[in-house]
Amino acid sequence: MPKTYENEDFSRENLRGTDLSGETYINCNLFAADLSHADLTDTKFIESHMEGVDFSAAQLNRAVFENCTLTNAEFQSAWLGDTKFSSCNLNHASFMHVKGEGAAFEHVQITGCSFYAAHLRQSLFRHVRGRRADFSMAQLPSATFIYCEINSSDFKEAGLSYSLWSKSRFEYANLRQADLNSARFSSVRLDGASLYEAHIQDTIIDGVFFVEAQGIIDAGCDRRGYQFLAIKGGTDTPDMIKAGCRWFTVEKAIEHWDAAHTEDPELRHDCQARVQMLVSLLKVEKGAN
User: Fold this and answer.
1) Alpha-carbon Rg of the chain, whole angstroms?
2) In terms of pLDDT, which residue wins out, 88 or 268?
């Protein structure tokens, strides 16, 4: 029968490899405890002090962390299957190389937190706050970021295909070479972000601000509200131009807009002018680099 512990002190305890599945810890002190390789399936941690706990290679299927202090905690190579973190302090915690699906991070702080090379499918980040988090090389397909403010963070070469980004701020984010294919951005601020060589096939961008962003050029909206953008490519990726939800190579964009809206000369001329502006600015950027 799983046990419930309340107001207990487990600080610095060696619980490595222990089966603690289904147990509940309420207002407990687990400071610097060793829970590496432990089975924590369906385990609940509520309002507990867990700074510096070692969860390396632990099984955390359906584990719940609620109102816990997890600063500097180590989750490296743990399994996070439907694991829930709610109202927790995860500043400077490490999730490097974790794997799983359906993990949820809600109302948490992640300043200095590392998700380097994590593999988390369909993860949820809701009301997440932090700076200088490291998501580089992480594989987060179909992830959702909503009501987040994760500024000055690194998503370089992250796999973010089919991800949803909504009502959030990712100012000064490094999205260089990130896989954003089929991702959707809606009401997001990417001011100062770097998108050089990002992969954006079928990416939907709606109501996104790119003030002083790098690697992307904004030519404004036509009278229909369609935003004209260009992404600067690299060695293996071509320059791309977008209007509405469609992306084209430069050559295809020119060809498309030369033939489009022949029934509306004013709109046609406006679209062609915006495309030519983007083409010219892409050439200027290439010359400057």
Assistant:
1) 23
2) 88
